[in-house]
C-alpha cells in the first residue's frame, strides 16, 4: 500500500531552501536583534544616566518604553524568522513583516516622550 499525500507527515513535504535565502533570513533576524539590543541599551542608559526632570516619571517612562519595544522586537524577530523559514521550506509566499509598523510607531512614541522630557526638564 502506498501512502497518499494526505498521509505523508507535513515535515516530509518540506524542502531544503537555497542556503543563500536561509542565510539572508538569518541576517534579517540578527538585524532585528541588533535593533532590539540598541533599544535595550538606550532604555537602561536613560534610566541610569538621565537626571530626573521636573516631571519625575518622565525619564522612567522613556526608559521603560525603550525596554518594552526592545522586548517586543526580539520576540517578534524570532517569530518572523520562524514563519519565513517555514514558508521557504514549503515553497509558500513569504509573510509580510509585522515588525516594521511596530518599530515605526514605537520609535515615534519614544521620540515624543524624549521631546516632552527635554522640554519640561
Automatic annotation (TrEMBL):
Upper classification of the organism: Bacteria, Bacillati, Actinomycetota, Actinomycetes, Mycobacteriales
Domain of life the protein comes from: Bacteria
Keyword annotations of the record: Cell membrane, Membrane, Transmembrane, Transmembrane helix
Organism of provenance: Rhodococcus jostii
Protein name as catalogued: Putative membrane protein
Main location: membrane
Start and end residues of each DUF202 domain: 20-86
Bilayer topology term: Multi-pass membrane protein
Stored InterPro entries: DUF202, IM_YidH-like
GO cellular component annotations of the record: plasma membrane
Transmembrane segments annotated in the record for this chain: 29-50, 57-78, 98-120
UniProt-listed Pfam families: DUF202
Record's subcellular location: Cell membrane
